[in-house]
Amino acid sequence: MIVPDVRHTAGISGGSACPVRTHRVIAAGSLTVRWSSALNTNPVTIVTQNQTASGRLAEIEQVIAQALAVWTGVSGTTLVPATLTPLTRTATQNACGPDGMNSICFDQADMAFTPGVLAFTRVITADRLGVQVGSSAVSSQLGQILDADIYFNPSDSRTGFATPQALAAAPTAYDFESVLTHELGHFLGFSHSAVWGAIMFPFAPAPGTCSGMRPTVQQPDVPLGDDDRTGLRVLYADPADAVHRGSISGKIFPANPLALPASPPGVTGVFRRAGGGRGCDERRSCGSNNRRVELHDSWSRAI
Amino acid sequence: MSFVQRRRFLWILFLAGLALLAVAANATTLSRLRFEELVNRATAVARLRCIGVENFLENGEIWTETRFETVELNKGLLPGVVSVRMLGGRIGNLHSRIEGVPAFRPGEEAYVFLWGHEGEPFRVLGWSQGTFRIARNPRTGMERVTQDSAAAPVFDPRTAPVRARRDSQPAGGDLSIETAKGAGRKNSLNTLGSEDWKNEIEHQADLRGHACTVLWSVV
Description:
The complex is a heterodimer of chains A (303) and B (219). In chain A, 50% of the residues are buried. Chain A contains 5 helices and 10 strands, in the order αββαβββββαβααββ. Chain A has helices at 10-13, 53-72, 164-167, 176-187, 226-235, and strands spanning 34-36, 46-47, 88-90, 103-105, 119-126, 145-152, 161-162, 174-175, 247-251, 298-302. In chain A, strand 7, helix 3 and strand 8 form a beta-alpha-beta unit. In chain A, strands 3-1-4-6-5 form a 5-stranded mixed beta sheet, with helices on one face. In chain A, strands 2-7-8 form a 3-stranded parallel beta sheet. In chain A, helix 2 (53-72) packs across helix 4 (176-187). Chain B has 5 helices and 12 strands. Chain B has a domain at 38-146: CATH 2.40.50. The longest helix of chain B is centred in the first third of the chain and has 25 residues, at 3-27. The relative contact order of chain B is 0.14. In chain B, strands 1, 2, 3, 6, 7, 8 and 9 form a 7-stranded antiparallel beta sheet that branches. Chain B has helices spanning 3-27, 35-41, 172-181, 185-192, 195-206; strands at residues 44-58, 61-75, 81-87, 89-91, 94-97, 109-115, 123-124, 131-136, 143-147, 154-156, 163-165, 216-218. Chain B is α+β, with helices and mostly antiparallel strands and 219 residues long. Chains A and B meet through strand 5 and strand 9 of A and strand 3, strand 5, strand 7, strand 10 and strand 12 of B. Strand 9 (247-251) of chain A pairs antiparallel with strand 12 of chain B.
């Protein structure tokens, strides 16, 4: 699996990708999310089945709540439904900004979008304690997420999204629930996954289709892959969890070793050096001496 | 090898080919920009050398402006020095990160598919999809082009127990390359018009044929 994006700062780790568990959320109500009801109209960003003004908003809100429940439904983590405060709306246009308030926006004019980019999540972290962004919490952990905003592409007439209820009638639209669930993964600290079928795989399902199965009350996390669940258990590890423990070990072939960056070390930090070099894990940093990547280098870590 | 054995072998090869095609077809269900789309929708395509990276704040948002020297122009019109602006970066102790946004280091070279409106700084089309990094083998001097979105190994957990896939079929790059090797090859590559570029894409495409062994054991 690709290690979620939880890293020591470069000053500590030498720029390695060693995972650290910094996103522990324990307190109830410690995570807030609001969404902007200022919906783009031309073109419509989110197609809904209900066409009344209030019905549209209710339908979208239901999907957002359901997508959040996908992640809080994973067992063995400290991220539980009670971690989230009730979802709120804002009518403010361009509500997504570095203000310390986690927001989801559908009408934000943003020059970062290009064709091929459906949605993105901008995550602001701090590499020092005592830092604050807008009204965010003051950072008490290195790498703490201080602000995370989700932007859906509003400007491309070829790109639209539809709620699960409306998807069948809008086969050219992308599944809003799948894309949002993916973006919420970034919101929670995930990087992309290389596992085909994981919700964090970087490419969205084709228009008119959804990722995996739809969540149910009995199985709220069913759209996720094992890789996603494992990642969440690393990110928001529950020390009391004795069920979801194990390890994975093996060898990894980079798709193209020459394409790996020479510096900073980045992902190469997770590879062991040939001839018994030490790997890296949560307890020790792995710096630039691990930069050399061997095709048959092994990698192991606890999950 | 007898005739029967040879025929059986050819059948196996044929079926294996069909299976591979099925995998490729599955990959097309993923949303991405095909190589032709990248070429067609790009305002400009060029081999660029990064000469400087600067982070700055605009309305409280952290942006990164990367300046490139144009080494080779494949589509559109570009000045000698090009500025590309992308969201995210670092200011002081704050890090703004957006997964998939390409970052460049001074001295690095890449084929970049640029997109933009007149009067605005360029962006990288499709982010990781529009970035093809060039790596030079210091021993042979050979260059290899790899699309950012195809640079990671891809695992398909449906193949038991867990198998690392050497290719990255769901990502845009390899499929694009495959397309380039197929019927549309001449058109798309002629649009780019670089002999080296063609060779490297073909070389990259050849990597697809490499089988990947079962590497993982789950404890």
